[in-house]
Specification:
Blueprint (H helix, E strand, L loop, with lengths): L2 E6 L6 H7 L1 E4 L5 H10 L5 E6 L6 E14 L23 E16 H7 L19 E4 L1 H11 L35
């Protein structure tokens, strides 16, 4: 089982939208490295940390699970879609998506500043792309990083049934995010 972090803009599609829908396709990813992670590495049952980007503050807000492995992203073939790509076709798809299912909204958001604090050299999140300047919308997460973030958020799910916070990690003091407005077209 692998662990991932996916970014979404909450005014386009939030964890509250995922909770309401139960499951959705994670479409519109137009970065080759992110596509390769989804196409080649994401497997059914993998845990997915949901990160609200372009928010104040940005941070990890909940948990999802991969419920369908990669398949061609049909939005690339629709000229009316903002994700249209004239070089992609059903016979030769360029872009892929996975389906994710809702697991939980975390009791506490883990803001980017806190992730960066624990991402400093020697920290439990050291080397995690989101703590640097990565704009990648789909990122791998190690089991230890996953456990630490779920623990900081007060989440119920654990990668390896860890009951306590890793050494040096304190629970987040940020309140749970507000419920978002109805969904608008996604922008990832």
């Amino acid at each position: 089982m692998a662990h991932w972090l996916v970014k979404t803009e909450p005014d386009a599609f939030s964890i509250a939208d995922l909770k309401r829908l139960g499951r959705t396709s994670w479409d519109g990813v137009r970065n080759y490295q992110a596509r390769n992670f989804m196409r080649d590495d994401m497997q059914h049952g993998d845990w997915v940390l949901v990160y609200h980007s372009n928010a104040k503050p940005p941070g990890v807000v909940g948990l999802a699970e991969v419920v369908r492995t990669a398949y061609a992203d049909h939005t690339a073939w629709d000229p009316a879609s903002k994700y249209f790509d004239e070089l992609s076709s059903p016979q030769d798809p360029r872009w892929y998506m996975v389906d994710v299912g809702f697991v939980e909204v975390f009791p506490q958001m883990v803001p980017l500043d806190e992730l960066r604090h624990h991402g400093e050299p020697g920290g439990v999140l050291e080397g995690m792309p989101v703590t640097g300047k990565s704009r990648l919308s789909v990122q791998p997460v190690t089991p230890d990083q996953f456990d630490a973030i779920v623990a900081m958020a007060g989440g119920k799910k654990r990668a390896r049934k860890r009951r306590s916070l890793p050494a040096g990690v304190q629970p987040s003091k940020v309140a749970k995010p507000a419920v978002a407005q109805p969904p608008r077209p996604r922008a990832r």
